[in-house]
Amino acid sequence: MTMPSETAVKTWINLARAYGTAMTEINEALAANGLPPLIWYDILLELERAGDDGLRPYELEHALLLKQYRVSRLVDRIARDGYLRRQSCDDDRRGKRLVITDEGRALRRSMWQIYGAKIHALVGHKLSDAQSRKLAALLAELTG
Amino acid sequence: MTMPSETAVKTWINLARAYGTAMTEINEALAANGLPPLIWYDILLELERAGDDGLRPYELEHALLLKQYRVSRLVDRIARDGYLRRQSCDDDRRGKRLVITDEGRALRRSMWQIYGAKIHALVGHKLSDAQSRKLAALLAELTG
DNA sequence: TCCTTTTAGATGCAATTGCATGTAAATATG
DNA sequence: CATATTTACATGCAATTGCATCTAAAAGGA
Prior knowledge:
The structure is a homodimer of 144-residue chains. Chain A is mainly α and 144 residues long.
């Protein structure tokens, strides 16, 4: 149970603050434009990248580090609003395949207008490209 | 509506991932030890630092960037469990003063055993002191 | 094959969050 | 002073999350 250095604490505090303020701004901007929360974007992007076969819910769960029940509920709502459809799965009758719809692709693009602009304003605009690369590399060390 | 560079996007993704995985680990470790969520720690720490006069709810709101109603409910629960008390406020009869109790100080220390160890494992242990300082400085650029 | 274990996903119910609004006191304005 | 506005905090209600559990199907073993 080694306790952290002052430096480590300061770094963690700054990380939490940077993430929290950015995420709040992003979600507020999405809501202000009548768009759903950011997690919908992440899901739609994964499905769009997955192509015509879509993804299984458990694949989404692992890709986005979400709890199983949360995927289940989010997928419910996104499907209810017509942005994805659940296909039955040939080779595993327990499972579903989640496939993005045209409306889903359009929603993802709409969300990107807001989200992308915020990433630019909150990250791209505040650091040089070199600083940003350095920051990305240091953050990658934490995850790895 | 300038769109972000690839670098900025990569940096934001890494930031979100680093925060998300760390926060999940911290809250899971707290829960595994029968302790409340991290936000209780933040509140108790603010109150402990504030000293005998405590803080007004709106001060907590600003210090921790929380919504007013969320402060109200969190304070309810923390008070219900005896970790803070609400004093009436002499100079403003609308207001309350929130003061940490001895039990609250003890809880904060218990939480720190877990939280601090995680900060060390997740940040301190993965970067040199110089890298950590660099990371803290770059993150501070984002907030400022 | 029959039985046990594991995996995929859904869901009932409690706790928490978010939104909108309410109440009361402080402050500003005429 | 009288009235309007703002500030501090609480709360009813809907949406979301978290936990535990359930069903069904797949996989593994005797």
